[in-house]
Design goal:
Layout (H helix, E strand, L loop, with lengths): L2 H18 L2 E2 L10 H10 L1 E7 L8 E6 L3 E8 L2 E9 L2 E9 L1 H13 L8 E6 L2 E7 L3 E4 H6 L7 H18 L9 E4 L4 E3 L15 H4 L5 H9 L2 H7 L6 H25 L1 H4 L2
Parallel strand pairs: 1-4
Antiparallel strand pairs: 2-3, 3-4, 4-8, 5-6, 7-8, 9-10, 10-11
The structure holds adenosine-5'-triphosphate and magnesium ion.
Length: 274
C-alpha cells in the first residue's frame, strides 16, 4: 500500500478511537487538571459506578465518576454522627462528632496554609440521597500502615521527614482523635497525602505530646500559621465548623507557634526550620 495512504488510515483510526473512548484515568496516568478543574469535576461529573471501599470502618464508597471525557474515582464519605457520649477503644469521648464536614474544613484550612497538595481535593456532594464529602481518588501505591507492617524503608529519609513534619504540625492543629496510619497514603514518588479528618476539630485547646510530635517545621508553613486569620477561617468554613471549633483551633495554633519559637530560641533556627 502507498505509505501516504497507510499513514492516513492510521491517523483516521486514531481519531475514531479518541472519539469513541473517553479518557480513562489510571493511576500511572493522572490527568493534569488544575485544582479548580478537579473541584468542578467532583461537583458535576456523573456517578457511573459505586463500590464499598476496601479499608476503614465507616464503609465509605469508592465511586467512579465520568464527565464524558474524563473518568476518575472518588471517595464518598457521608458520615455525620453526633453523640453526647461515645465509647471508643481509646476511652469515652464526650460530645463526640464523626462528620464528613471536617474533611471539607480540613481541605480549606490546608489551602490557607499552602499545604493543600498534601490532601486530595474535597468537596461537598449529594449522592444516593445523602450529603457527604467527595474526594479525588489519589494514585496510591501503599498506605503508611502497610509500609510499616512490611518494614519497607523509604528511599530518601530527608525528603520523607520533611513531608512528615508538615503532616504532624497539621495533625496537631486540626486535633485529629483518629490519626491512624491508614489515613496516610503514599504515592509512586513517595509523596505523602493525609486523608480522613472526620474525627478532627476537637474542642481541646491543648496540643498532644508536642515534644514528641513537633520536631521541625517548614519555614513557609510556620509563616502561614502565624498569619492564619480567625475571621477568614470562620468565613471560609462557616458551613462546616462551629465558632467553638475555630476558637479551639486558633488556641492550638498559638501554642504550636509558641512551641516552635521556644525551640528556635533554645536550639537555633537552623536546627528547627527548613
Ligand atoms: N481520596 C482518596 N484516594 C485514595 N484512597 C482513598 C481516598 N479516600 C479514601 N481512600 C481509601 O479508603 C479508605 C477509607 O476511607 P476513609 O479513611 O476516608 O474512611 P474510614 O477509614 O472509613 O474512616 P475511619 O478512618 O474513621 O474508619 C482509606 O483508608 C483509603 O485506603
Ligand atoms: Mg480512614
Amino acid at each position: 500500500m502507498n505509505p501516504i495512504h497507510l499513514r492516513w488510515r492510521v491517523l483516521i483510526l486514531a481519531a475514531v478511537v479518541c472519539l469513541i473512548c473517553p479518557v480513562f484515568v489510571v493511576a500511572a496516568d493522572e490527568p493534569t487538571l488544575t485544582k479548580e478543574q478537579i473541584r468542578q469535576f467532583l461537583l458535576t461529573a456523573k456517578v457511573v459506578h459505586s463500590q464499598e471501599a476496601k479499608k476503614g470502618i465507616t464503609h465509605t464508597l469508592r465511586l467512579t465518576l465520568s464527565d464524558g471525557t474524563i473518568t476518575h474515582d472518588a471517595s464518598f464519605q457521608p458520615i455525620d454522627e453526633h453523640s453526647f457520649q461515645k465509647q471508643l477503644t481509646s476511652g469515652t469521648e464526650l460530645n463526640f462528632v464523626d462528620s464528613y464536614k471536617y474533611n471539607i474544613a480540613a481541605y480549606t484550612l490546608a489551602e490557607m496554609l499552602g499545604i493543600d497538595n498534601m490532601l486530595p481535593v474535597y468537596v461537598e456532594r449529594k449522592w444516593g440521597g445523602k450529603v457527604g464529602s467527595l474526594s479525588w481518588w489519589l494514585p496510591v501505591k501503599m498506605d503508611e500502615a502497610e509500609r510499616v507492617q512490611q518494614k519497607i524503608a523509604v528511599p530518601d529519609a530527608d525528603a520523607w521527614n520533611n513531608q512528615m513534619y508538615k503532616i504532624r504540625v497539621f495533625d496537631q492543629l486540626v486535633s485529629d482523635s483518629d490519626p491512624n496510619l491508614t489515613n496516610v497514603l503514599i504515592g509512586e514518588n513517595w509523596q505523602i497525602w493525609r486523608i480522613d479528618f472526620t474525627r478532627a476539630f476537637r474542642l481541646t485547646k491543648d496540643l498532644k505530646e508536642p515534644a514528641k510530635n513537633l520536631v521541625r517545621c517548614d519555614r513557609q508553613l510556620l509563616e502561614k500559621l502565624k498569619a492564619l486569620d480567625a475571621n477568614e477561617l470562620t468565613e471560609k468554613t462557616k458551613r462546616y465548623l462551629s465558632k467553638d471549633e475555630v476558637k479551639s483551633l486558633m488556641a492550638r495554633r498559638d501554642k504550636i507557634v509558641a512551641y516552635y519559637q521556644k525551640l528556635i530560641a533554645e536550639k537555633g533556627e537552623k536546627e528547627v526550620l527548613y
